[in-house]
Give the backbone structure.
Amino acid sequence: MALRVGVIGAGQLARMMIAPAVELGLEISVLAEAENMSAALAATQVGDYRDEQTVRQFATTVDVITFDHEHVPQSVLRALENDGVRVHPGPDALQYAQDKLVMRQRLAELGIPQPEWARVATTTELDAFIAEHGGRAVVKTPRGGYDGKGVRVVTAAAEAAEWFEALADGDALLAEELVPFVRELAQQVARRPSGEMAVYPIVETVQRDGVCAEVLAPAPRAGERLAEATAHIGTAIAQGLGVTGMLAVELFETDDQRILVNELAMRPHNSGHWSQDGAITGQFEQHLRAVADLPLGETTPLREWSVMVNILGGPEDGTMAERLPLALGDQPGVKVHTYGKAPRPGRKVGHVTAVGDDLDDTVFAARAAANHFA
Ligand code: ADP
């Protein structure tokens, strides 16, 4: 009988697991937040991923559980584990992708390079941290942030006053030094329950307004030493935290050649979309292989360069479907991926990937295709 994979959450990441699941002969179903989600092409149950009974019932219909996002509460994940459900990544690992303070503490214990940071429970503590770090700091809400929401650069604690007021008893915010980075990188690693790992090439991610806009794979001007250093960080984290499935480590590269960990995602990640079309094994297939405990695939790039450009917002007028033939006709070498979402300003509604042996040409082709959806 085919192995049944259940994905909690039905966004574009779950959607992009469907095709490789079909190819591998896995059955895939999703627990969707609502009707008509991106991944509703798979067998779909609609229900609340925060509700223990709903998730436990969904788990009885599959052999292994994995995720489209990291928001399933620890209590629900622990209940699954108590039921004997295979959950990948498991709650012990996932907690580090759910809470940035817990992550910082653990990475410090593992000796992983990261920005200077502190747990700040009061405005007084934050003001002290700011004073020690050149008059500025980055303040983060430890949980629930995404696409730059929950991240603020401040020069005084008063600028985050409402975040402190909203804190529950015993909770705190995360303060970090404002890292003078020259660029952002991402390192992906897949890890099986048995411990086998597969390392992807280091990539450069370009953000606009806190949202990933483009990814260059591999990162330009990344020598062997840099690649070795980031691969080491990725595998040390995957192993140290017991991650199963895909791990993405977001990194800062500083002007003095330091590599510092920003944050972690334990699922396929925007920084790895390029691999669908640019590597022997794409991240969605690799994630499924890892969580199903199948041998991992090679991560070698198919061409010198892969460039991924997000389609953010979508067409100002008209639909994605109307623009599609224009993009395909104009750039027949580019792969277009659409998420089945209605256009909305800033929303990730699709992406395109170009591959080639000349970086400038590859960037041009990807941007040209993406521009048809603006
Ligand atoms: P999110 O969880 O919303 O993705 P991140 O922690 O990744 O939040 O931060 C979003 C962006 O803010 C990062 O991609 C980076 O550009 C910037 N940023 C975050 N932390 C720092 C820092 N300590 N120093 C400088 N810039 C930062």
Remarks:
- The chain has three domains: 4-87, 116-176, 181-371.
- The longest helix spans residues 224-240.
- The mean pLDDT is 97.
- The CA atoms of residues 223 and 229 lie 10 Å apart.
